[in-house]
Design goal:
Prefoldin; chaperone; about 150 residues; mainly alpha; Helix Hairpins; three-stranded antiparallel beta sheet; coiled coil; about 60% helix
């Protein structure tokens, strides 16, 4: 068990090992960025749902997707659950942002230690145009039982 921890902190032997470790670190950084983006989109969706259902009658029925199953509830029951989920997602995003900063610092130290410079061809952009859709969890509000 101790040997695995020693392997992670051992100095790379040659240029190829340094390049491989650097590529692994950059890949981890990109995965963190992707997860943060995905979760921020979910937070945004939760906010949209909350803004849509808050002004409605609390006894009005709505439908919520929970684990792939559509369940019927009232707005009074759904709103606090959506709020809790949003707060949980915001906490996870905050922790991921902390991890992101640590990883950036680690990469910067690695770059300076091994004098790594990145060459990018002209015209290459770093846009993330293909963003993922949100999860399948959502809320549907049914028609009002009375006249509005």
């Amino acid at each position: 068990m101790a040997s695995k921890a020693e392997d992670d902190h051992r100095e790379p032997i040659n240029e190829q090992a340094v390049a491989n470790k650097y590529a692994t670190m950059r890949n981890e950084l990109n995965q963190i960025y992707s997860k943060i983006t995905e979760l921020e989109m979910e937070v945004s969706e939760h906010s949209l749902v909350m803004n849509a259902i808050q002004p409605l009658d609390p006894s009005r029925r709505c439908f919520r997707m929970i684990g792939g199953v559509l369940v019927e509830r009232t707005i009074k029951e759904v709103l606090p659950a959506v709020q809790r989920n949003k707060e949980g997602l915001e906490e996870v995003v905050a922790r991921l942002n902390e991890g992101l900063e640590k990883k950036k610092k680690e990469i910067a130290e690695f770059e300076s230690k091994y004098k790594i410079r990145i060459r990018k061809p002209d015209g290459e952009s770093n846009d993330d145009g293909g963003r993922k859709e949100g999860s399948a969890q959502g809320v549907l509000v049914g028609p009002a039982s009375g006249s509005e």
